[in-house]
Amino acid sequence: MLDHAETSSQRSSHPQILDFYRQVRRDTEDLAAPLSAEDQTIQSMPDASPTKWHRAHMTWFFETFLLVPHLPGYRVFDPSFGYVFNSYYVAVGPRHPRPSRGMLSRPGVEAITAYRAHVDAAMERLLESCDAAVAELVVLGLHHEQQHQELLLTDIKHAFSLSPLLPVYTPDPSPRLAGAAPPMGWWTVEGGIYRVGYDPQRDGAFSFDHERPLHDALLRPVAISDRPVSNGEYRQFMADGGYERPNLWLSEGWATAQSGGWSAPGYWRAHAGDWQVFTLHGLQPVRDDEPVTHISYFEAAAYAEWAGRRLPTEFEWEVAARLHRAASPAARGARTHPGPLAKGVRQDVWEWTSSPYAPYPGYRAEEGALGEYNGKFMINQMILRGRSCATPRGHDRLSYRNFFPPSARWQFTGFRLAQDR
Q1: What is the average per-residue pLDDT within 111-139?
Q2: Which of 171-180, 258-267, 277-286, 340-349 has the lowest mean pLDDT?
Q3: 213: cis peptide before it, omega within 30°?
Q4: Which of 213, 224, 392, 409 could disulfide-pair with 296, CB 3.0 to 4.6 Å?
Q5: In terms of DSSP H, where are the helices of 162-293?
């Protein structure tokens, strides 16, 4: 949702949105720049997508939902792209199967670059004169592209991790020795009724539909850790047989861990009696002062059980974050890897909560194809809050609701703890 003073019947230029558009589109190309054409074509698993597909899909979104209906005389770049670069919008038409995106050797990277240029030029014309409703839709598309920027990084990391060559996406911009994470403290939240969800007065001008409407949540007294769990703390869980003790695990989690052969977080590799982790900078030593990441919901819940704690609900997380948002922010790492932990709300890993992804009271999906954006995924997923190192600057807010299946761990996912008071 955007706040705007115009009515939908007024047409005007939108220079601020145009600047935002140019920046976001440039950011995507900067993220793809270190990758060869071959790198941009591979798909390592059904949940991931090739880099060139991300670049084209985000372009297809603007062409399909902005240019075709709202720019008179617009010429579609290639009608066949509608089939190969539609993601899940059933109302728009048939789609190439998601698990087979890596089979698309064509269109090639150069054609997709030309596609982006063609659409960008048309979007410049559109933003010279359009009404507020169209401008609002452009901003939705830009936040959609920022989501894919994060996926672009995590998807290529997964693909590179499977190569015996262990490719380096980019050199480590700030190599360092590990320090010590600050001692874990606790934020207290009193029991009571709290307003939760997106509020434009406190959360900024944009939100996705599933962050709304504002509503009341009843909380019991709770304490929430003032930082996520560290690699060093997670090592203690591992050393105490955390992956061998089924009593700590949810049934499905135990079955998932056993079938996947899990004995450590994603990307960790045993080496000379210690652990290394594959990163976008190549293999690195596991640093105990960083947040543990690439953790599934199942692993987070097992650790919480082992520690005699639990995971916070998404509303406990939001209320605690709002009460303590002025706390010292975490040190930020590179866009490609978490930095060392510090006390605070703003961390470098998405944080699992114990809340299933469900609609807020009074939620209604948008009309038309864009109504498929969030609502239809509200099943078999868990909510994560916060942000990660890969989240674009300005894309996070305290009402943001990320969601993944409980077994997912290719994202930069971690967790903090809660305890009843």
Answers
A1: 97
A2: 171-180
A3: yes
A4: 409
A5: 200-203, 231-239, 251-260
